[in-house]
Amino acid sequence: MSRDFAMKGILSFLCALLLAGAVCCGSAQAGEEVVVVYGDDAYPPYSYRIDGRMRGIYADILLEAGNRMEGFLIEIRLLPWKKLLEAAANGEVFAVFPPYYRPEERPYLDEYSVPILEEETAVFCNKDVLKASRPRWPEDYFGLRIGQNLSFETGGDRFNQAVADGDITVEALHGTEDNVRKLLAGEVDCYINDRNAVYWTIKQQNQGDYPYRYGILQGAVIHREQGYLAYSHDFGASYRARFMTEFDRAIASMRADGLIEKIVRSYIH
To answer: Is the pTM of the predicted complex or chain greater than 0.70?
Structure first.
C-alpha cells in the first residue's frame, strides 16, 4: 500500500468520525454563534436529568427557540440551583433559566426575556374532599390536613398564619411522589405544589404499579409565577442585544403557533 493511499484512508476515516459527531451531537451552521445557557438540574418537570439525559419543559422550549433564532444556536447545561445563581452573580455565565422576576433580590440578573411559561401553584385534594366547592384559599381548607414538601413554603402568608393558629394541620415530606402517595392513602386531605409537577408525578406513576390519576382533583389556585431567561449583568458578550431580541422573537412565535402548550402537555398528559 502506498503512503499516499494510506494517508487518504486515514483522512477519510477522520472525516467520517467528524461527520458522525456532527450528526449525533448537532453543530452550528456557518455564521451561527453557539450560546450556552444554564438551568436548574433538579426541577422536574421543568429541567432535570434522568439516566444522565437532560429533560424538561423549559429545556425543550429553549432548544426549539434556538432552532428558530437567526444567527444563534442554544446549548443547555444544568447545575444545582444555588451554584447556578452564584455563577450568575460572579459573571461566570451568560444567562440562566427559569428564575422568577426578582430584580431587587437578584440585582446581578439585570435583564429578562419575555415570559416563557406561567407556573401555577394550587392545592390538590382527594376527590371526596372536593365534593363541595372550595374556591377560597386558605379559608375553605380550615380543619384539613395539608401536605407540602419539606423546606418548600408555597401556601402564602395567610396559610402560614392559619397553620400557626391551629386552623390547618401541615405534614411535610421529601418530594412530590411521597406526598402524592400519602394523599392517595388518605393520610392527608390535600397537598400544595406546582400544578405541572403534580400532574407529571401522576403521569409517571400511571405507567407503574398504582395508577391514581382520577383519585386527585385540583382545588384553589394559590398563586402564579412566570419563568424567564435572565441575563447576568457582569457577563460580557458582544452578541447580548442581538441574542435577546432573537430569543424573544422565537418565544413569541412558539406561543403563537401553540408549540409551548404542546410541549407542556407532552409532560403531564
So the answer is: yes
